[in-house]
Write a structure and sequence with these properties.
Layout (H helix, E strand, L loop, with lengths): L12 H5 L2 E5 L5 H16 L6 H22 L4 E7 L2 E10 L3 E9 L8 H15 L3 E7 L4 H7 L3 E6 L2 E6 L2
Parallel strand pairs: 4-5
Antiparallel strand pairs: 1-2, 2-3, 3-4, 5-7, 6-7
Helix pairs in contact: 2-3
Length: 171
């Protein structure tokens, strides 16, 4: 699926061919971004005795803290809503530092995972970095199913950070 009417400010050709587009995060996106965040945190809280209301409250607090952290520590990063098929499907936070590109966060809603969107976007990101002779890094939970995709695309563990691994793709 392609859409020639969607602007492509990042030059991510694979993503465009796959029907993905991107827009900067706006204040109106906070409920959607909180839902994206919660989609990854529900499993962590599943084994607790908390009820659904309590879990939702904790996830919202965690999202707000994470969002504030990202805004404070990565003010120059592209913070983007990922769109596909006319829907908001996820978020991408990308920092382009002088020595590397850092994927601060790439999360798709569960119903949009395992359909190829993450792979085409990661291929676009590594291609962009390679053109600038830069590596790409991402911090990822050791048990995140996306780890298999990242490994297949050439990301390797640079540092064990306990529950997470810092992965690097080398240009």
């Amino acid at each position: 699926m392609t859409n020639d009417n969607i602007p492509n400010p990042y030059g991510w050709k694979r993503s465009m061919r796959a029907g993905l587009s991107f827009r900067p995060v706006a204040e109106d996106d906070m409920p959607f971004l909180a839902r994206v965040y919660a989609s990854t945190g529900r499993e962590t809280l599943a084994a607790t005795a908390l009820n659904e209301t309590q879990k939702a409250a904790i996830l919202l607090l965690q999202f707000r803290a994470q969002h504030a952290h990202f805004q404070q520590h990565y003010p120059q990063a592209d913070m983007l809503v990922v769109m596909g098929g006319g829907h908001d499907i996820g978020r991408l936070y990308l920092a382009r530092w002088p020595n590397r590109h850092g994927i601060i966060d790439l999360t798709l809603l569960p119903e949009f995972r395992r359909h190829g969107a993450g792979e085409v976007l990661l291929r676009d990101l590594t291609e962009e970095a390679a053109a600038a002779a830069k590596d790409v890094t991402i911090l990822i939970d050791k048990f995140n199913p996306a780890m298999r995709l990242l490994r297949r695309l050439g990301f390797a563990t640079e540092e064990d950070k306990g529950a997470h691994d810092l992965l690097r793709w080398s240009a």
